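Work package 3, deliverable 3.1, input record:
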Amino acid sequence: VTETSSPGDSLLQSLRDIVGAQYVLTDTHDVQPYVTDWRGRYHGKASCVALPQSTEEVARIVRRCAAAGVSLVPQGGNTGLVGAAVPGYPQDAHSASAPAPVVLNLRRMNRILHVDPVGNAITVEAGCILAHVQNAAERHDRYYGVSLGAEGSCQIGGNIATNAGGTGVIKYGSTREQVLGLEVVLPDGQIWNGLRSLRKDNAGYALRHLFAGSEGTLGVITAATLKLHPRPRAWCTAWLTADNIAHVLQCLARTQSLVGERIATFELLNRRQLEIVRHHIPDLRLPADPEAPYAALVELTDTDGHARLDALMERILGELLAAGLLRDAAIAANSAQRASFWRIRHGISEANRSHGMGLSTDVAVPVAHVGAFIEEASAEVLAEWPQASIVLVAHLGDGNVHFIPMFSHADWAALPKREETADAVRARVHDVAARFGGTFSAEHGVGFVLAGELARLRAPLETALMRRIKQALDETWLQNPGKIFS
Amino acid sequence: VTETSSPGDSLLQSLRDIVGAQYVLTDTHDVQPYVTDWRGRYHGKASCVALPQSTEEVARIVRRCAAAGVSLVPQGGNTGLVGAAVPGYPQDAHSASAPAPVVLNLRRMNRILHVDPVGNAITVEAGCILAHVQNAAERHDRYYGVSLGAEGSCQIGGNIATNAGGTGVIKYGSTREQVLGLEVVLPDGQIWNGLRSLRKDNAGYALRHLFAGSEGTLGVITAATLKLHPRPRAWCTAWLTADNIAHVLQCLARTQSLVGERIATFELLNRRQLEIVRHHIPDLRLPADPEAPYAALVELTDTDGHARLDALMERILGELLAAGLLRDAAIAANSAQRASFWRIRHGISEANRSHGMGLSTDVAVPVAHVGAFIEEASAEVLAEWPQASIVLVAHLGDGNVHFIPMFSHADWAALPKREETADAVRARVHDVAARFGGTFSAEHGVGFVLAGELARLRAPLETALMRRIKQALDETWLQNPGKIFS
């Protein structure tokens, strides 16, 4: 130790010794992508970014940071929407004297470790990109059940840490339900090897379910064993339009009764959402009835390649039409048409981002209350912010509504207090959801963006329980500070 | 307080004030069924049995016991196999001076609170019998996914506390996967109301997954909201026989690939198991090939009432026969035959209990290793205890093998150290499972019977994490002492 070295220099040198100098980023330009969320809304700060290549390196980094009293922010693809992977933000939440966190980005830990098609399991490092896991499963004639917009860049570790949802939850469940086993580096740097590939294990508390969804606040997920499913061999994709939510809900309930386990997707979009997508993807054509207030993208899948899903879908649509629940419907006649239906759904994020300031929310309510929730939330938001329009995209089978008050860029720029307005709009939507027994976070997590809402909307006893667990596992609170807990 | 009342008298009087005198049992004869497990193997002791009728009564009992420093054993149908609901046993685990626990039996809290067929959810009190939940779902054209032998007497609270499995896990998951929300009385008597019916909720740590499977060591589950599923409208049940486990595993894997989500049951039985069942149910006839080393009960279900599952099953069996994987097979031609197939499976528990001393185990290994596990475990057990025979019944799709070294009553009585022998046999089987990455507890839980095995077979770091959680939520360790933790 030289006279001139600060504690920060000493930590940096240790991290360089652990992962190699080229894998510790400190240059402002290099660090920038790791301290900003992908939408560019939140700009944090970090002491450095460390890029470990192995669980042992992660453990050494965690131990070294713990010894130095420096906090850690684990990061995967950095595609989250609630700032859970953004370090040191908001700045005023961190005391000026505390050193900025170390970002622990796991992208170099991206190996597929084992695929077991007989046992229907795959073991991967946390930095594997979701699409690579999907592809590895497919190469073994199996299927990984999670699909979402960011699948080309989000990583499995982040998926697990945030219990990511997506469009396949209705059939396969959220990421949590895929997790058979985990490897986690604990806050003291010990490695918990819980990488079991068992379909059932009742030997004590379900630790994997505690780490899943904990957003890096209890340790760093370094590897996982995930469920695989038989690969679908038949698809049928349809586009439905309806006059109101009540009709769409009846379509959902009847379709579930008729073909239950075959429903792989049931996504609701409103007319405003479709207008925005069409505006930003000019060559896009809607499969049916562009003036309909609501549309639904419905997909059936089956592992039986002989299954005649088209005939089944026709029978379903016939019943729904006869019951007066549909305005119109179209079935994709081939894989090109199927892709074009999905292009509408997948175009949403980019289109909304270009279009204006969408104050996206991630509400879930009991499925039966989706219509009433939308009606009340729309009325309350528009009464106070009449310049907004209501954009809706929902995983309807999960009761999960992305209720998005959308402001034009001009209207948004004209608002005097933008950050406060964003909080106020979201709070209004969350309050309506809470009245219906709903949640303010269905699939995106809490991060720091919604930490205040967790404290505000959940019973003090519930958050106190979470704090007791946090304290029991991370007594110095150095793991991803400011996330989940405000 | 009179001079003559002991602290125990004072507690009893308080409990009588809370639930009514007739619902506090102290008479030895009355208490007996609540301090003995249903197989009659473990005989504990209790200060009394309290039978509350409401969550508020449970909370008051918990607070009163906490104040008196008396431990609590929550109890449902008392149908468990690992002694998790037996109070005060083994006696030597409790200091002579400590008062015996209070048994908190929830059978009077047996109301169906709400059924939501649109949202596919049911809310029930913890004392509801599983079969009543199944029936309530069916009355609303829905299906509850858990089926097990004790369903006529086990209770939902116990199912959740032990994360009960059964024959439907391959399709619907364990009890844990059904739990959308919980109400729990915490060790300090506060009531956590987490009775949400949301399909998705990512607002902080998944507390419901911590209480599910915690066997009453973290609090008392008083109510639950559970997932429902569309009701199956078509069934096909088949009886397969095969020469060896490898062939049965290939049958399973091919059937999964072909018809994935339709497989509702895939149960393996060996010849010895079938001999015992036939011996004890003389009028029972096997559907095919009584001399086959292995048989499998396979059931497909479908929510589509038009599904031609018989034709599908015939196609599958044709492929399996052509591949040389089957000895023989039979398809149930009608519901009476289907019932007779199931009668074989459901006759197992009673038949084994009558037949001798079955040292049942509850192992799970990765599915691909089931055959090797059975081979090695059989060889090791028979080498040391040649008087035993190996009885097998397995939920094969889950890799969950009830590997049962069976001793005749006479052979068992002749053993000098029976309790030690039982432990030694089980430990041998568990060791083999552990070599294959398996667990000693797949669906029955830990209780006190396997608490030593948890400490022995799991990494110290893993059990230390569990203890930290236990300490954080139950700092006086008065909730179901001696269970899970030895």
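Chain A is about 35% helix and 20% strand.
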